[in-house]
Amino acid sequence: MPQLNPNPWFLIMLMSWLTFSFLMQPKLLSFLPTNLPTSKTKTILNPTPWSWPWT
């Protein structure tokens, strides 16, 4: 079966990963995110107990 022969496909996979790693990844990582994470303080809400009419 020709699909099981890794000779041509391994080289194609290796070249595509190298292309992504060395050419595309630095370009993609250079973009600044539009929504920067902010450090917000957590607000702790103290809920008031519910007054049930039948108790």
Automatic annotation (TrEMBL):
Listed GO CC annotations: mitochondrial membrane; proton-transporting ATP synthase complex
Keyword Mitochondrion annotated: yes
Any GO BP annotation: proton motive force-driven ATP synthesis
Bilayer topology: Single-pass membrane protein
GO MF entry, a single one: proton transmembrane transporter activity
Pfam families the UniProt entry points to: ATP-synt_8
Keywords: ATP synthesis, CF(0), Hydrogen ion transport, Ion transport, Membrane, Mitochondrion, Transmembrane, Transmembrane helix, Transport
Name of the encoding gene: ATP8
InterPro entries found in the cross-reference section: ATP8_metazoa (IPR001421), ATPase_protein_8 (IPR050635)
Transmembrane regions: 6-24
Keyword field contains Membrane: yes
Protein name stated in the entry: ATP synthase complex subunit 8
Cellular compartments annotated: Mitochondrion membrane
Stated family: Belongs to the ATPase protein 8 family.
